[in-house]
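Slide 14.
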Amino acid sequence: MNNIYLGSHINLSAPDYYLGTVRDALQMNENCFMFYTGAPQNTIRKPTNQLKIDEGRKLLLESGINESKIVIHAPYIINLANTTNVKTRELAISFLKEELKRANDFHVKTLVLHPGSHVGVGLEIGIKAIIDGLNEVLNHDTSEVRIALETMAGKGSEVGANFADLKKIIDGVNKKDRVGVCLDTCHINDAGYDVSDIDNVLNQFDQIIGLDKLLVIHINDSINNKGAHKDRHANIGVGLIGFNTLCQYVHHPRLMDIPKILETPWINEKPPYKEEIEMLRSKKFNPDWAYKL
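Slide 15: predicted structure.
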C-alpha cells in the first residue's frame, strides 16, 4: 500500500468484534479505519475485555497497519451543547468519559465527536456549553486520546458548521493538545464552503484553526448543492462534489499523513468501500461501477 492513509467506517460486531473489524479492513485493502465501540444511538456497551482487542491488535501488527491512524467515532447521542435538559447533558459528559476510556483500551488515539446541537438556545450558549463539557471531561482524563470535533453541515441548531466556531471551542479548552478537528467533505460542502477549491479551504482552515489541528478527514460525496445545510452523503463520484475533487483531498501533499475515512452509503446492503478506495487510490473513476448504483 502507498503512504496514503485511506479506509472506511467498519462495523464492530459479534462474534469476532475487533478482530473481525481489522479483518474486514484488510479485505477491503484499507490501511486505516474508523469504528464505533457500540451502537451509535444508545449507551449499551459490552466490556472491552470481551471485544477481542488483543487478537485484533495482533492482526494489525502482522499486517503493518499503523495503529495511530485508526479512529473511533463517538455515538451520536452525546450532545455537549444541550443546556435545556439536565439529564441529557449529564449523560453526554459521563458517556464521553467512558468512550475515552474505551478508546484507550483499544489503544486508539483519536475519537471523532459531533460538537452537538444547541436546541434553540443560541450558538454562543451552545459553544460555551461544549467548552464547559470538554473541560469537565478532559480535566480529569489521563489518557492521550484526542477528541476530533467534526465539521457539521449546519442543519437545525448544529454547532460547528464553520471553522470559526470550532476555533472558539478549541480556544476555550484547557487541554488544547487533546482537541482537534475532523473535516468532512460532504458537511463543509453542505455548510457552504466551496469544497472544489481545496487550496482555499485548506488555507482558511490553516489561518483560522491551524492544519496541525486537522486529525481526520471524512471523504464523502454529497447529494446536495453547496450551502444546502442538509448532510446527505453520496457515493464517491456520483454526487455533486465529484470524483476529481474528492481525489484532490485524498492525494493533496498537505494532507498525506492524515487518515481519510469513507462514510458513503451501502449498496444493496453491502459496503462499497473496496471499489471506492481502489478508484481513489488509482485516481481512476470507474463509470461501469458507478452505473450499478
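Speaker note: Residues 86-105 form the longest helix (20 residues).
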